[in-house]
Amino acid sequence: xxxxKRIFYPLLAAMFGISAAFTSSCGGDKVIDVxxxxxxxxxxxxxxxxxxxxxxxxxxxxxxxxxxxxxEANNGExxxxxxxxxxxxxxxxxxxxxxxxxxxxxxxxxxKNIAFIKYAxxxxxIYQKEGFNHITDGEGNKIACPNWxxxxxxxxxxxxxxxxxxxxxTAVSELKSKGYLPRIRGFVxxxxxTDGEIQFNDGTxxxxxxxxxxxxxxxxxxxxxLNEPGLPIVFGExxxxxxxxxxxxxxxxxxxxxxxxxxxxLPDNYLVNTGDLVIDASVDPWHWQGQSARLLGVRFGEKMxxxxxxxxxxxxxxxxxxxxxxxxxxxxxxxxSGVTVSAGNQITQTDGDGSYLISVNRATDNVILFEKEGFGxxxxxxxxxRYKNGKLRNVESFMHRKATIEGIxxxxxxxxxxxxxxxCGSQRxxxxxxxxxxxxxxxxxxSANAKYEIVFSKDxxxxxxxxxxxxxxxxxxxxxxxxxxxxxxxxx
Length: 492
Prior knowledge:
The protein is built from 10 helices and 28 strands.
């Protein structure tokens, strides 16, 4: 990587460091703002077009894109400048897409020349050590995959790390050859599932254990490689249930999300919440379904638009009436009625088909809160002055249904046993004086017949592990479950 740096730094300084000066002398119409999109499969684009409303399947001819991904041999548009359009994801049939579609939906309206450089590969990690139980070759042998790790901690840069900057170098050079004056304005990152999933042959989970450190170092390295110390970096939370619920099963998705939230608190980092987005559980436990993938891109665009184009001027504070409307769905796309929707002192409820309409001050940012008993609460941030026709803004939201797992713990003799620790994933409760416990969980994770491992433990007693499977038929889940009585054996 040192050789690449020696070539790349001066070239980037020449391309970007003086482009702002060219704007006044050569005219702003040739300046083009470049945003880099990188990460693994949810950035590359595994969302199926079949789950995206047809009205969003259109081109954005004013937003240019240069992209590289895993299906390069089957896509004639890779490694050359084109425009953002539906079907630029990881699929030979061109019916899959990534966040670029929703992001273009926001950014094309900026009044700027916009270009995306997308470089993303499914199944990729930042952690680079060999020996994890994740990737296999064609003969089933476990191998280490290319990675995003840079030269920090004395390491050799990974293939994807080097490939990213080489691709940016090439793409920017081509823009210049077309007469543009490119400026790198932001970096968008969607990754983490593989670091949370990988379990090494020695039983450790170093990808998750080191994720906060590696992500922090990666973002610092990106700014250094691009010679942009204050470059805005927007990144998204992974779906925290995208790995098995227990460490014993090899999954650390929740730890990855916790690390991402910590990194999101650092200067010039902007984390996008994905708690209300929905995976396509009928396909796999990792990838957003179409509507959610589009919303992820919209949120990337809104966050980046704010960081790049709004922070310098600030938002107006006078009152300008606006209206936010939309629908609320559960995690299977069913409309949810009776949801309390609030924005400041304005409160309303969704009607029978999940629809709502609420008045807001469109001159300021607004936080819309969605609440209903039996569901996880959701907040959506609506940015100031981003309203259709100046007054209306459509905001869809997804709420995950809660479920309960309850029961009673007794001794071998049949007496209620209090003080028993009952753990399911990150949820932990203690049995009361009657031996009763109640856990709240989200049964939409994974796909059909998702399994939950429940661990019962108390000093002086042998621990017990119970595996519970929620029934699943045609998008209908049995939500609340009573496990009855479980007896713990006393230790000899």
